[in-house]
Specification:
mainly alpha
Amino acid sequence: MAGFDFDSAETPARFGVQNERTAGHFDTSIRFGEKTSAQRLVLPALLVLAWLLFEVTANATLSVLVTCLKFGWEDFRTANWLRRTDPQPVRGAACSWFYFASGVWKTAIVPILAVMLMSFFWASFFPMARPNPQVAEQLLSAVTVGFMAAIVLVLVVSVAVVRSISTQTRVWVHHDLHHSRRRNVWPPEFPHGPLAHQNRGRSILATAILFCTITFPVLMFRVVVRLNAPQEMVAVLGLVFGTPIAATFAYAVLRDRLFAQRPQECWAECDVPMAATSVLDIANAADVAHDPS
């Protein structure tokens, strides 16, 4: 990538701050998108660990949790790397919370999707068959892991939102950052030129808000049933209609305040190919041209 010429005279000035925190150890042998040997061993290692845990504890939920951690493993490592590497510690901490939330998000969503697919498959091809107790136990364990991870997701996202707003940091969440972490390169590289719709932070925030929207009325049901008839009706209407409206409003307010439209809005020092940002520039120029003010 032209923006990262390590032999140029500009390199020490651009990477001087990063060298102070990471000693400037750049691994240029790793190609973009290429998996390292350690990365290829993560899934087999976690599967073996999950099997050993099940053999020792006979706890299927714990085994499923360890297996699902693989899907968020890269995000967890990138979160830790950001906290240690970003020359602006406040910004690095704010971004690391969202990458940690991304790992929890993947850990939560994978078992839930797996249960949905297995349930659909079972209902479609074996509608009259009696459920296998062992299969039912595994499905219940997956749902439990997904639900527990979703609760953790809400807590982590809450902390991430507070940190981002309090530090006025607009975050960029994208899987291309994993490669910069593997090479220990700063500022981050984005040779594919991710656009605004590829900022995964929006999906993470939406999932956390959706989970709250579903669970909050259920948790409040016990309180509502103890109210008098007029108050109960008002409370039910408030939960049924007010909760989705409040959730939609919260997402609309937080979305643009928390998340960057492009990587440079999060890390001003990073380079993105001009061809990748031109689409956004054209769209912004068109909006200005059509603005009567």
